[in-house]
Amino acid sequence: MSTAASRATGQNHLWSVDEHLEDILATVRPLEPIELQLLDAQGCVLVEDVTVPVSLPPFDNSSMDGYAVRVDDVAGASEEFPAVLEVVGDVAAGQADLLQVGPGQAARIMTGAPLPPGAETVVPVEWTDGGLGEGPVTAMPARSRDPEGAAGHVRVHRPAEARAHVRARGSDVKAGDRALEAGTVLGPPQIGLLAAIGRGTVRVRPRPRVVVLSTGSELVQPDEDLGSGQIYDSNSFALTAAARDAGAIAYRVGAVADDAETLRTTIEDQLVRADLMVTTGGVSVGAYDVVKEALSHVGDEDEPGSGIEFRKLAMQPGKPQGFGSIGPDHTPLLALPGNPVSSYVSFELFVRPAIRTLMGLEDVHRPRTRATLTTDRALTSPKGRRQFLRGSHSDGRVTPVGGAGSHLVAALAHADALIVVPEDVESVEPGAEVEVVLLR
Prior knowledge:
There is one protein chain. The protein is α/β, with parallel strands linked by helices. The chain has helices spanning 17-27, 71-74, 188-196, 235-246, 260-270, 290-295, 340-359, 408-413; strands spanning 14-15, 34-37, 45-46, 50-51, 61-62, 66-69, 83-91, 105-109, 121-124, 153-156, 166-167, 178-180, 201-205, 209-215, 219-220, 231-232, 249-256, 276-280, 307-313, 315-316, 320-326, 331-336, 368-373, 379-380, 386-394, 397-400, 417-421, 427-428, 433-438. It has a seven-stranded mixed beta sheet with strand order 1-19-21-22-18-14-17, with helices on both faces. It has a five-stranded mixed beta sheet with strand order 9-6-8-7-10. A hairpin with a 2-residue loop joins β25 and β26. α1 packs parallel to α7 and α4 (235-246) runs parallel beside α7 (340-359). The protein is elongated and about 90 Å long.
């Protein structure tokens, strides 16, 4: 699956960030389109333009509760000299048989109801006495409590221009208009529009299913007691949440102990529900790096084209990485480092674009900008290695966030950007302009 086989890399080749990402995006393909019910399509990407079959609104209708009248009948009306009109009945939303409004007449009309024949404008109820023969009212009484309100006379205290408070047919969208473009991610407003124009299903690329699992015998689930040498498993929670935030349907698997056979079995069991697999931990050069041990040789003669390649990248954090495919369907797998910051930075750089590619989006990357570095000392980076630092960004300025050791996870929670230090730069001075990847 990976195009890495075509590269003359060698065991000790140091990959650049761009090379690794290019290899991933050249391999991962958008998922095949399917037809889904509207609510099932939320978060999915349209694969075709949607046109409007019927104008919205489909008829002239009132935008206010009030009275449908003729313009001449209320011209010059005031509280001192109100226009007195005969009320010929009600026009409610959804009503099919409409009243005819003649000279000197008014129909009590509700918001969303069709403008009846003969009427030219709508007078809000607050401009009238509501048929009570007194001063201005603020609302209509409920029909169940005042069935006579649709008869008698109403006094109108203000004039109204033609088609005031009337929503014209097709004023929202017209039949034949393009409602949504291919490539649109369907959120609540888009789902509402599709329903409004009568679409019950839509053709989309489904949200990719991403399985996230962490490795390490030292990992304990939250809410359990920590033993000697143990830590809580935070990576699988962070990456599962990040995958969902990117648009995927993500499944978290409990931490797997440092045993190669157990890991292989767990991954094989999870393939049935995965369009993409993400592991964290066990990809470096230690004796207990179980992911590397378990997956380095999965691409055998029984699965042509599959295999996971473990690489060293010219980046910090996140130097050790793995990428390839596994299983009969050649499911893509990204193996990330176990350090929380390395893991999360790697997700943002590599996994998130892969998820967005599976969704069929054209722009798969986080937005980037330039910002002024605010810090009390220079940032240093090994030459030839691109560095990614957590930062707090606002108003065109960015400040590094967090330190080392136990503060790593806390630093992630307070970072909203990544500061990008190029490979050929060893030091960035305070006040310099830097590239920033915006995370929020």
